[in-house]
Amino acid sequence: MTTMTASDWRARADSQELVSQAFIDGSYTPARSGETFDDYSPVDGRLLARVASCDVEDADLAVAAARRTFAEGCWSRQAPSARQAVLLRLAALIEANSEELAMLETLDMGKPIGDALSVDLPAAARAIRWSAEAIDKIYDEVAPTPEDQLGLVTREPVGVVAAIVPWNFPLMMACWKLGPALATGNSVVLKPSEKSPLSALRLAALAVEAGLPAGVLNVLPGFGHKVGQGLSRHDDVDTLVFTGSTRVGRRLMVDAGETNMKRVWLEAGGKSPNIVFADAPDLEEAAEAAAAAIAFNQGEVCTAGTRLLVENSIREEFVSRVVAALEHHWVPGDPLDPTTRVGALVDGTQMETVLGFIESGKAEGASLRLGGAPLSGSLCGLLVPPTVFDDVTPKMRIAQEEIFGPVLSVIGFDEFDEAMTIANDTIYGLAAAVWTRDLSKAHRAARALRAGSVWVNQYDGGDMTAPFGGFKQSGNGRDKSLHAFDKYTELKATWIKI
Ligand code: NAD
Known about the structure:
Layout: H1 6-15, E1 22-24, E2 27-29, E3 36-40, E4 47-52, H2 56-72, H3 80-96, H4 98-109, H5 113-135, E5 141-142, E6 149-157, E7 160-164, H6 170-183, E8 187-191, H7 198-210, E9 217-219, H8 224-232, E10 239-243, H9 246-258, E11 263-267, E12 273-276, H10 283-295, E13 307-311, H11 315-329, H12 348-363, E14 367-370, E15 387-390, H13 397-400, E16 407-413, H14 416-424, E17 428-429, E18 431-435, H15 439-448, E19 453-456, E20 471-472, E21 489-497
Helix pairs in contact: 2-8, 3-5, 3-7, 4-5, 4-7, 5-6, 10-11
Bound molecules: nicotinamide-adenine-dinucleotide.
């Protein structure tokens, strides 16, 4: 763990050279149009870089490079063990450069530097390493055919993958895609969010240093309606993988349908219920977890525990504990200070969205128990303290819509079935948690909850070994685990007459 202080990080930020050009076919290059966009830091408002603003033309060039390398086979037809060696070097390089990459994350999107170092960077490296380690241990199948036939069931890379990712965990989300996409032999065009392009651009150089052939990984910074559309509507992209909002995900499915029917895999929004029964094993532990579930990463987490469903018999006591935990442990501060646990919201637009939801909670009659206004006089003006609303009813906007900020909606319940009905009363189905010491009740809840991940007596467990993704409008397909490989491969049946 680093011993650097906030002023050390600030000095490092001042002297850090930032990569701001697109990365196409092995070289950094300006956008064809010559256009740039200004990338400001939510930490202190500084202009970080004028970043290449890519468009359809750049998408064409990057997809062409990806297609050429895929067809040539310099990566796609390498032995799995050879791809593995390159990706293991990439994982090691991510680790070796983790301080720089963590700082880029914090500068770009405002998360606490301590989290960037201890959560984002290890997870990014792990995603690459885990996928690399797996790739030479997966076997194909021989079908149970009659004796005069040999039926081979094999997996092949899909070809050109476009990966469009969000800003809340920029590098980690990118690596959840890149690990399995590259391990299975595809060529990739990665589009980071316009709000957080820097770490992905730096990663491109590390990939080359690791030995990835030019053109196999291309990185295009820019806006969704420009280069994003250039990729989602491209006729030579075979598969589009996406993490982001449900609104944009829906649009991408239309784009694919109107063009070449590229496969579309979506990891989208959430409104996850965290359900606390009166027989939770340890109310203090549950309260601390409920606080972390809404405050970690400023609440800018797809799986944030935004709906706290509490059995009415313990509600008052439990909400008081959650409020106390938030007040004591989750105070917003300077994102570059290693002791800070809640950083800055990503930008003014996100701030307005979050404040708008807070106003709507007040207007709809929920009881404000904590927070409710931004911290004044802060370094960056984008610090919003954890905010808790009690007496929320399931149809209120703050109980239905994804806020993507540190705003918690507490809803009371009396009966098990009532809790399950409220929990499932959402268009989303990403995650859910349940706290009880009754094993049967926990299993019944886990079965009843329509969500891709269910946690029992914890919030946000998981690692690379288990699939991650959503039911309903939280998406389709899964990141992480061997199941993620399904998105990046086509199944082929080969019949040989003997
Ligand atoms: P967003 O949907 O606004 O943007 C995501 C990406 O899509 C960005 O790179 C953006 O530039 C691009 N994009 C936007 N419009 C586009 C278009 N028309 N065509 C092509 N690309 C376009 O999401 P965001 O604000 O960056 O991220 C927050 C969202 O991400 C939240 O909804 C959150 O729940 C979700 N998220 C989901 C997961 C998950 O695993 N399910 C993980 C993290 C974040």
